[in-house]
């Protein structure tokens, strides 16, 4: 999964079977994102690539200055 176009603050979206968007993460830096983990019961930081099979796209929030 190539993510060179992602900048800190971008939102990344992931899917699951039967759901168009199942999970959202916030891009941090160096291929990492912050996301709420149901399994861990808290916000965690982890590699975006760990979700590569479920990745469906990214968006940059309006007014981000980029």
What is the terminal-to-terminal distance? 22 Å
Which range does the strand content fall in? over 45%
SS field, number of helical segments: 0
Low-confidence stretches: none
Task: Find the structural class using helix and strand composition.
Answer: mainly beta
**Spatial strand sequence of the major β-sheet:** 4-3-2-1-5
Any idea what the radius of gyration is?
Answer: 12 Å
Q: What's the number of extended β-strand segments? A: 5
- What is the subunit organization of this protein? single chain
Number of domains: 1
Question: How would a crystallographer describe the biggest sheet?
Answer: 5 strands, antiparallel
**Average residue-wise pLDDT:** 87
**What is the succession of H and E elements?**
EEEEE
Taken from the alpha-carbon principal axes, the silhouette is: globular
Helical content (DSSP H or I, runs of 4+): under 10%
Outline the structure in words.
The protein is mostly beta strands. The protein has one domain. Helices cover about 0% and strands about 50% of the residues. The chain is built from no helices and 5 strands. It has strands at about 10-15, 20-25, 30-35, 40-45, 55-60. A 5-stranded antiparallel beta sheet has the order 4-3-2-1-5, with no helix packed on it. The model has no long low-confidence stretch (mean pLDDT about 85).
